[in-house]
Amino acid sequence: QLQASGGGLVQAGGSLRLSCAASGRTFSFYSMGWFRQAPGKEREFVAAITWRDSSTNYADSVKGRFTISRDNTKNTVYLQMNSLKPEDTAVYYCAARPSSKHAGYDYWGQGTLVTVSS
Fold this sequence. Notes:
The chain is mainly β. It is built from no helices and 11 strands.
């Protein structure tokens, strides 16, 4: 089970940190991802962090502004979002992929809304 939190209303240029707490599984053996879905748009990839060595990758639209990290002792993955823009407004979802898979995410959180005002 994944529980995302930390969304809210922020002005352009501001920052937010999203958290995704995992329960019920061995978190350290899951790669984690953040996705977002803006109104009227399809869900898109934002960032991911692997289980093996915590390597990361980002969508071009957020590179240099967002940072994904994980704390396996707390079973939590974070998304630090800086220099937010109105186009970052979306519902943000965290997702988990077991180490046995190389693509796709098996588990999804409920989403947390981020609204960036101009």
